[in-house]
Structure formats: C-alpha cells, structure tokens
Amino acid sequence: MANEAYFYWVGWMLWIITTFFMKRGKKRDLFTLWLLSILILSNTDVMIGEIVYNASFFLLIIGTIILLLHLKRQIYLTISTFTIMLGYASLLFWEKAAPIWLFWPREVLVPLLLGLTALLLVRGLESRLCVVLLGTSLGEVVFSFTLSTYGLSRGTGELPFLGNIMITIVFIVFLDIIRKSRTKKAKHHNIPIDLEVAK
Predict the structure, then answer these.
(1) Displacement of CA 183 from its chain's centroid (Å)
(2) Sorting pLDDT into bands at 50, 70 and 90, what band is 85?
(3) In a domain, 193, yes or no
C-alpha cells in the first residue's frame, strides 16, 4: 500500500515539475504526456498469455526505449541496461528465495542499490534514468516469465513495482542535485573534485 502512495505522490510531483517548471518545448510536452499517460493507465491490467501486465508498464518501456534511441553511446547504455536487468531480476529471486536476508525494507534497499549501480555505470541524469527504468522493467519481465514457467503467477509492473521505480527516480535525481551543487561549490572555491564515477 505504501508503494502505491509513493507512486501516485511522486508521479504527480514529477508531472507538476515537467508541466510548470521545465523549459517550454517538444521535450517538455512529450515528458508531460508520457507521465500523465502512465498515471492514468496505472490501474489498467492487460493479460498476455498467462501473465498479467500493468498497462502503464508498456508505456514505461516504450518511453525509455525512445529516450535511449535519442542518447549518445547507445551500445554502452544497452550493456548497462542489461546489467541492471540482471541485477534487479537477481534481487527479486533473492527476495523470493530468502526474504529474511533483505536487511532493509524493500522500499529502501531496491532504490538504493539501483541508484548506486546507475551512478557507477552511467554518466548523466537522463542516461541514468533511462538505464534504470528500462533495466528494472526488463528485469521485472524476466522474473515474471521465469515464475510463470514454474506455474507461479505474478502480476508484472504492478503498483508496488511502479512505486519502487518512483522512489528510485527521486533517489537518482537527489544524487544528481548533490553532485551538481558540490561541483559548483568546488569550482567556486577552486577545489579539484570529480564526483562522476562512470566515465
């Protein structure tokens, strides 16, 4: 239930930010429409085969693929996406097999691990968001498909997943704001500092 609240709260906050605070242009319009569509379709389910998918899950994947196609270093970003996908699917399998080993709440552990992995792998806010969104979405598909082969049913891309995605977005944006403010402060005081981990 908490993840659903996080999804709607952060989703509407992001929509307000893109609608009223982003620079006017085609990019802003596309982000606003994309976010609004994800929020509207979040309660709609689509059944394909034996797996139930959330309709906004498809919009999330399509939007991130389009974003990935407009970024530089697509091969590297694709490899990073694959890495995030494997890591996220492994974390879900780990949680399923031994939930006692998750030493922090899922709402904290998953965004923290995803955000730090993106920080290590990728440079730039848009690239990090794209890699995390697409990687976790594909990891969710891998996990659900694997469970369905064993006869276990699980909804794919449902509100708890979307809530974790929104918390991860907030964490990545927060890290980016800290990095930019520290870089600005370092330049102001002539301190050599490089906070970018990924090259």
Answers:
(1) 25
(2) very high
(3) no
Residue 70, domain member (yes or no): yes
Work out how many domains the chain is built from and give that number. Answer: 1
- Residue 62 and residue 129: Cα distance in Å, rounded? 14
- Give residue 110's Cα distance to chain centre: 10
- Express each pLDDT in 3-51 by its tens digit: 678 888 888 888 888 888 888 888 888 888 989 898 888 888 888 877 8
Phi/psi region, residue 49 (left: phi>0; alpha: psi -120 to 50; beta: rest), is: left
Q: Is the pLDDT of residue 80 over 90?
A: yes
Residue 136 maps to a domain = yes
Give percent above pLDDT 90 in the chain.
19
Question: Has residue 197 been placed in a domain?
Answer: no
Amino acid at 88: Y
Pull the structure tokens for residue 130.
């794209």
Give the domain range for residue 160: 2-188
